[in-house]
Backbone:
């Protein structure tokens, strides 16, 4: 045990504290405290840390820090004077800024960037530029003479005929004579009002010049079975799914039989006709060109 260790132990015992209490107060581990008191400096960290330990112990135990550091320098002389740094016999070689590994990394990075740009241009960009195909509409065909296109309007129900009441015809009253008794008023019966029956509605005819045929466009909103007869020939018979749109053109007549009238929207010569009935209802509807006008017909009555 050196003089430094003896001085530290006497100060600790004089204060009446244990190594554990010194460790808790100074935050210096017990193994370093024991090494300082026993002079076992090989178990201590470098001198700069030991001098820090001595300052903390001096403040806690009431000792002179400079005295403790001087004793430590006497007992450990190699810590007082640091050894000079030897000069290098050969000049230092400068490490190149660009190494082969760095070059390989740059080449790989550029290759990945070029490959990604090519994939984006060839595969991703064309998909992003694809626009949905608009639903084709069938415009009304115009006549060669430059006349306006035929427009088919939905039938309008005629207003209910109002009862016409004819006023009763007054009858002449008998003239009174001098010898006759006073005239007696005779009540004339009022005839009951006569109701004019409403005219039978007929299929409306368009007021525009004759078209060059009939164009039927069908848009399916619910799955439905259809049969389309164009100018006497069956043009289509089958089931169309929701979202399907089909168009047929005829010269004289188009007849459509629909198994789900509420799921099919009809347009004739560009004029929307709406749905032909209720969902699940079987409806037969025809459109015929008569004297230059399109007439809506019902060729047959479907069986329920």
Residues:
């Amino acid at each position: 045990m050196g003089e430094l260790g003896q001085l530290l132990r006497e100060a600790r015992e004089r204060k009446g504290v244990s190594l554990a209490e010194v460790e808790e107060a100074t935050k210096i581990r017990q193994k370093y405290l024991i090494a300082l008191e026993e002079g076992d400096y090989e178990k201590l960290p470098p001198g700069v840390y030991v001098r820090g330990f001595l300052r903390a112990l001096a403040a806690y135990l009431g000792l002179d820090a400079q005295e403790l550091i001087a004793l430590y320098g006497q007992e450990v002389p190699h810590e007082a004077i640091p050894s000079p740094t030897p000069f290098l016999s050969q000049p230092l070689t400068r490490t190149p800024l660009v190494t082969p590994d760095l070059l390989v990394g740059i080449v790989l990075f550029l290759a990945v960037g070029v490959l990604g740009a090519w994939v984006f241009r060839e595969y991703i960009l064309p998909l992003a530029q694809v626009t949905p195909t608009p639903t084709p509409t069938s415009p009304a065909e115009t006549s060669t003479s430059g006349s306006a296109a035929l427009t088919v309007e939905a039938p309008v129900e005629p207003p209910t005929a109002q009862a016409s009441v004819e006023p009763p015809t007054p009858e002449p009253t008998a003239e009174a004579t001098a010898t006759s008794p006073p005239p007696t008023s005779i009540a004339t019966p009022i005839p009951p009002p006569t109701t004019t029956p409403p005219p039978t509605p007929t299929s409306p005819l368009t007021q525009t010049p004759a078209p060059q045929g009939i164009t039927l466009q069908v848009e399916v909103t619910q799955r439905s079975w259809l049969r389309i007869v164009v100018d006497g020939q069956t043009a289509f018979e089958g089931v169309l799914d929701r979202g399907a749109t089909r168009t047929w053109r005829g010269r004289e007549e188009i007849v459509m039989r629909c198994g789900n009238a509420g799921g099919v929207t009809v347009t004739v010569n560009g004029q929307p006709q709406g749905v032909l009935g209720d969902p699940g209802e079987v409806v037969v509807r025809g459109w015929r060109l008569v004297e230059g006008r399109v007439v809506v017909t019902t060729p047959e009555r479907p069986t329920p």
Residues 80-91, 138-187, 199-208 have pLDDT under 50 and may be disordered. Strands lie at 214-220, 224-230, 233-240, 245-250, 253-258, 264-268, 271-275, 283-290, 293-297. The longest helix spans residues 100-129.
